[in-house]
Amino acid sequence: MSTIDARFQLDWPGFRLDVDVQLPAKGVTALFGHSGSGKTTLLRCIAGFEPIAAGEIRLGGQRVTDAGFRLPPEARQIGMVFQDYALFPDKTVRDNVAYGLKARKVAPDEVIARAHEALEQVGLGQYADRFPAQLSGGQRQRVALARALVIKPRVLLMDEPLSNLDAKLRGQTRIEIQKLHAELGITSLFVTHDQVEAMTLAQRMMVMNGGRMEQFGTPEEVYHRPATTFVASFIGAPP
Questions:
Q1: Mean pLDDT value across the chain
Q2: In what helix (H) or strand (E) does residue 105 lie, and over which residues does it extend?
Q3: Confidence band (pLDDT; 50, 70, 90) for 163?
Q4: Which pTM was predicted?
Q5: If you ran DSSP here, which 8-state letter would residue 185 be given?
Q6: Contacts of 194 (CB under 8 A, 6+ apart)
């Protein structure tokens, strides 16, 4: 489990992301804000998919990005759950989960054992030989989570992992993710537009607006003691 130190700027035409935050090891942090506020871009910078203009990003004290250097994503030991799950439709559940291990040249026997372990963790051990099209939305989401966990990441990044699920499945999957985090104690950062998710899943919230961090704190602090007028208006009524 690693701390995340992100102190950097990213400049695109018409958009500037300016971040200065330290996230402690373990626990879950929610990135919360309007569409276009920079949440997913911040996640992609931490993952190594986007370069930065100035500053640096450190994971567990290790510098992984600065203005002239970017450690490749596959070398960062980061698990990523994408919004659309990004599963291979022609691969079985087992092969989807094992993909990252095979890419890292892990021994075949270990690949099988770790893929099975990851599927058991998310309650899908019996679905290993099925294909993504044969699963429900909630099950596909859990396959994506197992694929991220199987590499034993020091940081888990999730980009709106529940947004494609209906209300009932969101509630069920939210509980499952809470249990997993309690068991694994992993450092996690997830993007959400959903206040209920942010308030119930996260130990910390980072509220973003226009590429800037408006407030960072516990859900209780953000709700009861908003740091800016924007935070007060954006948080609104309690979930």
A1: 90
A2: none
A3: confident
A4: 0.89
A5: -
A6: 162, 163, 170
